[in-house]
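Q: Hi! First time doing this. I have a protein sequence and I read that you can turn it into a structure. Is that right? Here it is:
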Amino acid sequence: MSSRPYVLHASRFPLTGGHPSGCEEDKVKWSPQAILFLQGLTLALVSLGFFCLPTNPILNFTVSLNPHGTTPLAGLARLESSRPLRLERIQIEGGFSHTFEAMEYSKSLEIPILGLRANKEHSVRLHLSDKNGAMVLTEARILKTGPLPAQFPVISSTRHGEGSSGGFILHDLSLWEPRQVIPDTSFVVILDTFGEVVWYQRHDCLYNEIKMLPNGRLMMLDFSGRRIVEMDLLGRVFGEFQAVGQGLPTEPTAVPVKTDTFHHDFVIDAQRRWIWTLGTKRRGRKIDDLLIAFDRKGRIRKEISLMDLLEPQRIIYPAAPGLWNQFYEGDLIDWGHANSLS
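A: Yes, that's right. Below is the predicted 3D structure, encoded as structure tokens:
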């Protein structure tokens, strides 16, 4: 609607009972036709203004902390609206604010709330827009996080530099105890550039490799060498792959992959949507290292034996007899022990 003011010229309407202009005692009387016109115009303007006022389309807006029970520093916002809206920005007082681009319009939105800090109160508001470009701001909702677990490792920052590239640090923390070869508790952790924890998840195993995918999910290979999991930062599992080459039973939710192990590392082939990893199989008294690629259905697409590429009689330090006893019977020679893939 135009911002130009409406101008009403009284001279266009017939006046009655007036005196010559300029007299102090002049009194102007409007004709019935003019009064009726003004009443109609006023009603029209009021109605026009009423219908042009933006109405709040938000029907329901809630936020919840740790919605799936495994990510104490993550939340979920749910919003229902009377017309399609698009998220533009999440404003978090006490945490990080996020700006979004090219999101779809919808009347029903579920939005992860990330970047919360331990043992703090956070005020959360959403900035949205409709298809006409009108901005909509939600009321504030409060999320109160608890302290870090008592057994959480102490993290200290030894240096703060202004030259930091920003961003976040993703890694795992293992709780090593005296005389314990492999820890049975670990945390997958995200830190900010000041070393403060902004996300974590506790696990009953150690992880060999953790990577963040382009879609923001995590893919993790645990220390057992038999399981790769894909999950989001709310703790929802979207894929699980299990090495079953030795005839081990498959978990009901897992996709079986015919290799004995997933060894230490993996790489995602985004174009083919394959997962490349290092597998193993027994060859006589030696462990053969394999470079394998499998798809999302667990089918092996490529398999390359390092024994076909390198000297099979070579023995590397320390050849580690007994290292693979948890996977194979007998003290086998750890011929190559390939750990990294790029």
